[in-house]
Amino acid sequence: MTVSSAPGKVYLFGEHAVVYGEPAVPCAVERRATVTVSARDDDHVRVRAEDLSLNGFTVEYRGSTGDRPDVDVPAPLVEAAMGYIDAAVDQARDAADAPDAGFDITVESDIPLGAGLGSSAAVVVAGIDAATRELGVELAPREIAEHAYQAEHEVQDGQASRADTFCSAMGGAVRVEGDDCRTIDAPPLPFVIGFDGGAGDTGALVSGVRALREEYDFAADTVSTVGDIVRRGEELLAEADPDADDAPEELLSELGRFMNFNHGLLEALGVSSRSLDSMVWAAREAGAYGAKLTGAGGGGCIVSLDPTPETQTALRFTPGCEDAFRAELATEGVRVEVPPEADAEGEAERAGDGEHTGADSA
Ligand code: PMV
């Protein structure tokens, strides 16, 4: 048995524009997905998903998920979760040159699904790390990021940037511009996240922005203006002292202003929603330095900057906000929680385990 975890992320700046080659700055946050992988003696893959903001389910399938399991949970959620895990399994098999490897996989995550916090990237990154280690191969975080990107790219029909997967694998603040991915220094930023309990359809939202951009020059200009904001935001971070205990007020104030600007442009591109806007305004009125939606939009999460408790309290009383929490910058990306060699007892236990067949929903 091997256990790995990887963090979710917020976009400080640049979602959507990153799809068109503009830079983006995502920051990993301390909400993690944890994936437990045990190699099997056959080529089956058995997946158990828990705490994914959907009902727990357990399914088993042979070799690949080509034969979709018949389980009693909403099909799109199963499809989505299984698609990412399937792609991660394929990448791990490729990386370890073990095309017939089978696994028992358990996924746990405290990152809301599809809500702009990079839940799928974190699951894919942690899954590839645990599965390759289980097969005796140790990949560097950058290699994990590459395989995870290939997995997301496949599941999202080519509509994925490298931002989520690179950020989750490396941790901290990162800068992504096309294929150029780097880690950057950032002081600790006081993120407060508001979640409306919903999720946006990333594919449809990306297609919507693409269509607007193709139809109107001013929409294309809006996308490049997001890029300008990102570049200015990056300069601010580069000038800041990464070892400071707290980010100075002037930095937060300027970053916040740029976040507000970025949100306005995303709103203009049609990817905000009433609940996201209402949480953004609640945060600003509570005294946050700035607030914006994070991720694809349409529903899900906003991110704001506020070192005081005010924004979190205000969000909790905001209609449409289901959860509000503080999230520290996660300086560590993917990490092994239980390495394979630590599991002599687990091996013995598995040898006595019964064979499960078919699908059982929990
Ligand atoms: O909602 P998320 O966390 O999957 O972020 C999507 C971000 C986009 O820029 C809209 C798409 C992408 O792949 O970068």
TrEMBL record:
Q: Which UniProt keywords apply?
A: ATP-binding, Cytoplasm, Isoprene biosynthesis, Kinase, Lipid biosynthesis, Lipid metabolism, Magnesium, Nucleotide-binding, Transferase
Which family is it part of? Belongs to the GHMP kinase family. Mevalonate kinase subfamily.
Binding positions for ATP? Answer: P112, L113, G114, A115, G116, L117, G118, S119, S120, A121, A122
Q: Where is this region: Disordered?
A: 332-362
Is Metal-binding set as a keyword in this record?
Answer: no
Q: Which organism is it from?
A: Haloferax sulfurifontis ATCC BAA-897
Gene Ontology CC terms, in alphabetical order: cytosol
What range(s) does the Galactokinase N-terminal domain occupy?
A: 3-38
Grouped into one coarse class, the protein's main location is cytoplasm
Cofactor(s) annotated in UniProt: Mg(2+)
Q: Which SUPFAM superfamilies match?
A: GHMP Kinase, C-terminal domain (SSF55060), Ribosomal protein S5 domain 2-like (SSF54211)
Q: What is this protein called?
A: Mevalonate kinase
